[in-house]
């Protein structure tokens, strides 16, 4: 007999009007008309630290004691590298990193690609493969790159290796990020944090870096 979970009815592809709305998924494979990404002339130099986009970011902010404190550096193309050390507060199973935390590490590394193109984008779709368990105290060596751009859609990929930068791949992801304007955050973020960010000269300077996009 099939297990009970096999008997779940399939989710309808689009059920508008029934209370369910399932958006069509964007393929993670760029369309034929997609173009290669362009490294912005003012992108950080290869090897230069990218820094956090927001000190309260769970992925890269220094103001989040339980966060990942991810430190990314620019590559020589439209790519970055980063490291994340798994701490006890990141556990899922005993002694092992939580899968959602590992997905966050991949997501935030992909997010730092914004600095290479001087485009603000947010995660639209992120598909993650978990290939090896990642124990506490492990340094996850991440790399991410943009593979193609189509309109506002930015196709990108990331891997996380253990045991060194050339070690075996433990996690990987393919993603589509969507370009947005700064208003995306101003209009949607909780007012307390938006007001605090807008009165922080460092935060305003980080945001302005994108607005001089030629
Ligand atoms: C100060 C510095 C800060 C810098 C801040 C940097 C932050 C980085 C942090 C790490 C990354 C994150 O965690 S970001 C946080 C997690 N992500 C989010 O919160 C995003 C929530 N989703 C949204 O707000 C929205 O759905 C958007 C913005 C993604 C899309 O809405 P929209 O702007 O109305 O887009 P729309 O016109 O419908 O679609 C434009 C094109 O994108 C495609 N598209 C739309 N949504 C998706 C999707 N989810 N997945 C795939 N593809 C999609 C459409 O098919 C279309 O393709 P075509 O028809 O043109 O072909």
From TrEMBL:
GO molecular function, one term: hydrolase activity
GO cellular component: cytoplasm; membrane
Entry membrane topology: Peripheral membrane protein
Gene Ontology biological-process entries: fatty acid metabolic process
InterPro entries the UniProt entry points to: HotDog_dom_sf, THEM4/THEM5_acyl-CoA_thioest, Thioestr_dom
Record-annotated Thioesterase domain positions: 95-163
Localisation: Cell projection, Ruffle membrane; Cytoplasm; Membrane
Matches recorded under SUPFAM superfamilies: Thioesterase/thiol ester dehydrase-isomerase
Recorded family membership: Belongs to the THEM4/THEM5 thioesterase family.
This protein's name: Acyl-coenzyme A thioesterase THEM4
């Amino acid at each position: 007999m099939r297990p009970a979970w096999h008997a779940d009815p399939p989710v309808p592809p689009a059920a508008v009007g029934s209370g369910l709305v399932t958006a069509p998924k964007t393929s993670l494979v760029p369309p034929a008309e997609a173009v290669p990404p362009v490294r912005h002339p003012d992108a950080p130099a290869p090897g230069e630290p990218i820094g956090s986009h927001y000190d309260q970011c769970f992925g890269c902010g220094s103001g989040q004691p339980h966060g990942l404190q991810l430190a990314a550096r620019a590559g020589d193309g439209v790519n970055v590298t980063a490291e994340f050390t798994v701490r006890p507060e990141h556990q899922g199973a005993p002694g092992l990193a939580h899968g959602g935390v590992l997905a966050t590490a991949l997501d935030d590394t992909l997010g730092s690609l914004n600095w290479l193109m001087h485009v603000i984008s947010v995660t639209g779709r992120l598909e993650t493969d978990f290939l090896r368990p990642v124990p506490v105290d492990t340094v996850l060596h991440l790399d991410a790159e943009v593979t193609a751009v189509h309109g506002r859609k930015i196709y990108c990929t990331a891997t996380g290796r253990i045991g060194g930068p050339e070690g075996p791949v433990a996690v990987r992801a393919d993603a589509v990020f969507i370009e947005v304007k700064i208003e995306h955050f101003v209009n949607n973020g909780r007012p307390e944090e938006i007001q605090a960010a807008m009165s922080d000269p460092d935060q305003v300077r980080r945001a302005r870096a994108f607005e001089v996009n030629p």
